[in-house]
Amino acid sequence: MSPPPYYSSLAPFRETFRNGTPILTYHHVGPRRRGARLKGLYVSPKLFALQVEELNSAGFSTASFDTLAVANAQPGSRIFLTIDDGFKDVFENALPVLSKHRFQAILFLVSDFLGRTNEWQKRAGDITEPLMDDVQVKDWLAAGQQIGAHTKTHPRLTQIPLSEAREEISASKKFLEDCFGHPVNHFCYPYGDWNEPIRDLVSAAGYQTACTTISGVNETGTSPFEMKRFTARYPSRNLKALWTRLRARFS
Q: What is the domain-level CATH number for residue 135?
């Protein structure tokens, strides 16, 4: 049986996770603001804590994204956590939980928007929210977490000229490395929008991996520039009873 399209709890995914290396992705860890159109991007702090506690209790551990290729060759109880965009609520609400359980996550940053708001969603008619500034990113790194690149301005890479896409991909890597003094080896396609020419630009820029929005676990044969991920979301109504039991277990 195939797992649900979104990750809310471990039970429906346990068998799938045995078949490869899972990656979960988050955007916001905080309350959903009034007027937000993309409601599925929000996971409440309580739900995030519950998900991490459940994975930890089930014996899952995290590691540096640099070890992803090794993990693909040796699937087991390793899981990787990714967080797109770099919203301030992640720093405030997710980092304490990660630190408590000694879990590691990689934060994919939009380099031109550090300390600003997500203007790319405003252009689509959505609300804007604050992004982490360079001081918060430095604290994130000091806490043992990782960063990766999510382009300069969060465009749909297949819808702009290749010369512009090359600049978005390579300049974001250089800026982040210069700003924070850490290697930036991993990339995430904005909106999950990519094709073979874009993938090749990412490889040529010197990245080791790139994340998509394709659902599934990763295996030995998975291209490092086509990494699959499950999006974490709040549970659907048919999982309400399950979450009631889980809350009782971890309360």
A: 3.20.20.370
Given this model, what pLDDT does residue 168 score? Answer: 98
Indicate the number of domains in the chain: 1
- Report helix, strand or coil for 164: helix
Assess if residue 251 is contained within a domain. no
Average pLDDT over residues 18-35: 94
Long-range interactions of 42-45: CB distance < 8 A, separation 24+: 42/234, 43/232, 43/233, 43/234, 44/234, 45/93, 45/94, 45/97
Structural domain span for residue 219: 6-245
Rounded to a whole number of angstroms, the CA Rg of the chain reads 17
Contact 148, 187 (CB under 8 A): yes
User: Residue 1: inside a domain, yes or no?
Assistant: no
CA distance 55 to 53: 6
What is the per-residue pLDDT across 120-129, written as a single tens digit (0 to 9) for each?
A: 988 778 899 9
Neighbouring residues of 181: CB distance < 8 A, sequence distance ≥ 6 = none
CA angle in degrees (0–180, nearest 5) for 178-179-184: 65
* Length of the chain (residues): 251
- The closest alpha carbon to 8, from 73, 54, 68, 75, belongs to 54
Residues forming beta bridges with residue 211, ordered by sequence position = 188, 227
- Res 33: pLDDT: 87
User: What mean pLDDT comes out for the span 41-56?
Assistant: 96
128 belongs to a structural domain: yes
Which tens digit of pLDDT belongs to each residue from 199-249? 999 999 999 999 999 999 999 899 999 999 999 998 865 444 444 544 444
Q: Is residue 138 part of a domain?
A: yes
